[in-house]
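Fold Annotation — chain and its backbone

Encoding — discrete vocabulary of local shapes
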Amino acid sequence: MTLDYNRRPSFADRVNAAVDRALTADQATRPPRDYLGGSRLGHACERALQFEFTATPKDEGQDFSGQSLRIFAIGHALEDLAVAWLRGAGFDLYTRKGNRPDGGQFGFSVAGGRIRGHVDGIIAAGPEGFGLAVPALWECKTMNAKNWRACVKDGVTKSKPVYAAQIALYQAYLETSVPGISAAPALFTAINKDTAELHHELVPFDADLAQRMSDRGVRILQATDAGELLPRVATTPDFFECRFCPWSERCWRLPA
């Protein structure tokens, strides 16, 4: 086999490189979050969450690639489609206050704005005959076929505990602004990005899980304010979570 060491980028390569440069340049102009995202509190490692909250620089080469940014954008586009599909099916689904394009997102802000979350939507009524309890939180995620099948088989709580933690925390914190939302099971929608199959699941409020996630958020804030580094999730750097962590090299140079 002859190796071509002088291979030139194809037309597709050049176009993709230009697209990725534009995406990463745009991403670089966006300020980092200055709060702890409620959607992230179910992550396995509290130290990683602490790095995220403090906008600690990621390891070299670990910033979002153009491909990752495209994946995120596709997820948002599919979520918009899911909104239209559910509304067409008779769900009175609010994604903005007043259901106006210029309306603010539904969400919460606690701990002086240092813990925040924005919800995908709130269902005010379901189609006739469904007996859906309302108001109900609506959360939507996109997944590859393997993860989607696991979610269908085992449910979101077992297959995607980070999402389950997000749902419970949002139901708890939204109760003050949307009374009754924690009494109604949340509607979780999962979109199979490979096949366009949809999975819908009612998720009852888990008060214990919500409390644990709230306590975790406070613990991260308190440790950060005190200049303390929280324990990492593992004892060796080859642990699954560590191998895919964008702060792994930094973390394993620091004390346990």
